[in-house]
Amino acid sequence: MKRIRWQEFLMILFGSFVLAAAFYHIHVQNNLAEGGFIGIALLVQALFHISPSITTLLLDIPLILLGSKILGRQLAFKTIIGATSFSVFYSLMERYSPFQINLSQHLFFAALLGGVLVGFGLGLILRYGGATGGDDILSILISKVSRLSVGKVYFIFDVLVLILSLVYLSWDQVAYTGFSVTVCAYITDWVMTYHRRKKTESAYI
């Protein structure tokens, strides 16, 4: 049991690293937005020049604390790991990363690559029992008090954030971001269910 807990911890950290790397090197460097709290953080950065590593934590912490009372301490603890490690990794890359991935003339490819990498990182975090931040908990809480599924809440929240992103991005950039979010959702589901499918397939061999 102890080994499994360490595995969960390490995989959540790895997922957060992939997530931070994809957002900074693909989305931010190529002027793509994002849904959820990270999308809000990118909007705040564009308007007020505050690093997303700070904004995401300020948005996440109150909802994580609220979620711990309603959804359980274990989910809250793993969410804190995911949110804090994402913030740390993003801050380090923002300050020290020498890599520049300029795909501004190929936004379709940037959106596709960003969606795949972000979906992979998110999928790992969710697959090992964590969450990416307070927006995940907010979606779960809204779903519990409404007739909407968690997926529908995610979608509505993302659409609202993307509309707000028009303040600093063009329609084309927001449209490509929408494509990236769609790819991300597919890859996230694939990563989360891959292990389950492999176990089912092995049972028939």
TrEMBL record:
<feature type="transmembrane region" description="Helical">
    <location>
        <begin position="105"/>
        <end position="128"/>
    </location>
</feature>
<keyword id="KW-0812">Transmembrane</keyword>
<feature type="transmembrane region" description="Helical">
    <location>
        <begin position="149"/>
        <end position="168"/>
    </location>
</feature>
<feature type="transmembrane region" description="Helical">
    <location>
        <begin position="38"/>
        <end position="63"/>
    </location>
</feature>
<feature type="transmembrane region" description="Helical">
    <location>
        <begin position="174"/>
        <end position="192"/>
    </location>
</feature>
<protein>
    <submittedName>
        <fullName>YitT family protein</fullName>
    </submittedName>
</protein>
<keyword id="KW-1003">Cell membrane</keyword>
<keyword id="KW-0472">Membrane</keyword>
<dbReference type="InterPro" id="IPR051461">
    <property type="entry name" value="UPF0750_membrane"/>
</dbReference>
<feature type="transmembrane region" description="Helical">
    <location>
        <begin position="9"/>
        <end position="26"/>
    </location>
</feature>
<keyword id="KW-1133">Transmembrane helix</keyword>
<dbReference type="InterPro" id="IPR003740">
    <property type="entry name" value="YitT"/>
</dbReference>
<dbReference type="Pfam" id="PF02588">
    <property type="entry name" value="YitT_membrane"/>
</dbReference>
<feature type="transmembrane region" description="Helical">
    <location>
        <begin position="75"/>
        <end position="93"/>
    </location>
</feature>
